Amino acid sequence: MKVRVNNIFESIQGEGRYIGTPSLFIRTSGCNLTCSWCDTNIKIKKELTVEELTQVIKDSTKNTVVWTGGEPTLQNKPISEVIDKIDRNNHLETNATNIENSFLEKFDYIAFSPKEKVDAEKIHGSKLDTEYDVKVVTDLNEVGTNLIEYASILMPLTTGNQERDMKCKKRVWKYCIEKDIQYSPRAHIDVWRDREEKELKKH
Fold first, then answer.
1. What are the sequence ranges of the domains in the chain?
2. Which of these, 19, 32, 77, 174, is most buried using a 10 Å CB contact count?
């Protein structure tokens, strides 16, 4: 059994509850959504056996493994096998389209990032024992507005226009204070900008 992988790298968690945590990121290949803003070329892939991927993780000094994508839940069986063989804190980043408690509860923490309201509703109905957040990317005007009521974390939309993005950050910041919701920056983007992927692989 093999895991389709886009890339593997050590870096700092740049967003969400565990921002700032040194981690090993396993970016899986393949996704069931086609979001126009996705920052991952999910067509690039290599396949690693469960044993090979297990060894990669064991060779890393990082105690936290972040399974991201793509969409990791599309490969729940081989990923489950890997998790059973390692002694690490396993975090999952998922679009919440595949809610299967037996798989999700293998993780110590889950960051759900739903794109549709129906998926956000499924999260709260799943009765997970695992620690999790619902992270919504929004500009509070158009993007993500139908999901805000489900969010435990809000992250301002990034467009690449610095003036517009700063206004959005301040708007979301103030909203989070008013509504008592956790605010999340994208620290890795703030540091590396468009050189993110290249620099992460080098450092």
1. 2-202
2. 19
Residue 35 is assigned to a ligand binding site: yes
| 16-44 pLDDT tens trace | 999 999 999 999 998 766 666 565 665 66
Q: Is 31 annotated as a binding residue?
A: yes
Mean pLDDT of all residues in 78-87:
97
Claim: this prediction has a pTM higher than 0.70: yes
Average pLDDT of 108-135? Answer: 93
d(CA 51, CA 85): 9
Looking up tokens 């993110």 gives: 196
Q: Is 168 annotated as a binding residue?
A: no
| Annotated binding-site residue? 70 | yes
Residue 16 annotated in ligand binding:
no
Q: Is 38 annotated as a binding residue?
A: yes
| pLDDT tens column, 151-177 | 999 999 988 888 999 999 999 999 999
68 among the known binding-site residues? yes
Residue 13 marked ligand-binding = yes
39 is in an annotated binding site: yes
Quick one: pLDDT at residue 202?
42
Q: Using a CB cutoff of 8 Å and minimum separation of 24, what contacts does 122-131 make?
A: 122/96, 123/96, 123/99, 123/150, 124/150, 126/99, 126/101, 127/101, 128/101, 128/104, 129/105, 130/104, 130/105
Q: Domain spanning 2-202: which CATH class is it, in words?
A: alpha beta
